Amino acid sequence: MRWRDRLAVFFFPQGMILTMAALMLFFIHLSIFASDVHNFYVTHNYDRMSFRYTVVLMFSKVISICWAAMGSLYAEMTDDKFLRCFSLTILILNGAMFFNRLSLEFLAIQYREENH
Amino acid sequence: MGFVNPAQPSLDCHLASLPCHCLRAPAPSWAAILEALFPQVRKGRISSLPTTSGGKPFQLWALGLFCTERNLAKRLRSNSFYPFTEQQPNVFVLEYYLDTLWKGTLLFVVCLLLVSFGLVSQVRKQETWGFPAYGMGIGLWLMISSLPRRRLVLNHTRGVYHFSIQGRTVCQGPMHLVYVRLALSSDAYRRCFFQLVLCGHKLEPLVLVQLSERYEQMEYLGRHIARKLNINYFDSLASSYRHVVRHWPLGAAFSPGIALRKTRAYDKLSSGSDLDV
Fold it and tell me: According to DSSP H, which parts of chain B are helical?
């Protein structure tokens, strides 16, 4: 029954699920950002950057900030100090990721499309 | 909790009027109509003991789509303990699936069709198949989280309620923590809309009637349901004298702030099942 109990955690507490989803999205965005920075500054391979997915990526970042904010709101209603700090950290990380992405897009704006 | 202090009649008058200006004077005829709809309002109807408890787990979905007061009144006529079923005398059981089950499935199927047929895969050289992919993920999550069946048991013989999800107990507590509540929301033109909600401590709120403007009918239905199930009924305001409290918190009877209700002249519709404190 132990694995069922662990799986059942996914079914009920609303605040933790939103924070966990925001954390997962944060790791995905971080890996995409790391690969983009690597292609921009190190290998100068601008074709491999994620320019074709900019719209979906920005939408995904906004959604992850919303989910992190909702999860932090749920965590503030409980009295668990660890949960509150954790959700707030995830919210701050997602916000920082959004502004990082924005800065990189501004830096790379002239490399987006090459017309010959 | 609502209570009335008989030593302060001015507070009584202040509490008597709701701030909503749309509250009409109760029409004398519709009470007779509702009495006709409930011919057995005084007797409880005990259905035959079923082999499986709660035969209709999807009954709340129709309530979510077409819930007016007449719909609820019609259902109450066929099952007086709606949405519960009476398993034994004084034990009520409700088994249901959340309505996010069909909403999540619908979202998942629609996004799956969009992704497989490639309708929104590329817009002006931007790859946008990520949007239906997001929709698929969210729909799948809603569907999976709603698959376990919820079960709410009101056990008056032991004085506890019990909420479990697929056999795993979520919460079990005393009866004063489950109640029927009339919720108020108003729009920008100060028109009031009422919702009848069955909720409790750590329970998922179940909306029985959505967005109705008729206060008296909603209150009648709410009090009827609370009387049948023998739980508390609360009005839309936090402190009002239209609350019907049948179960008090433990030790509340001995707290000095709670005064007894001396007159029940305004409460002629409810039966005398209030706890005598």
Answer: 9-16, 28-37, 59-65, 69-78, 100-117, 130-146, 215-229
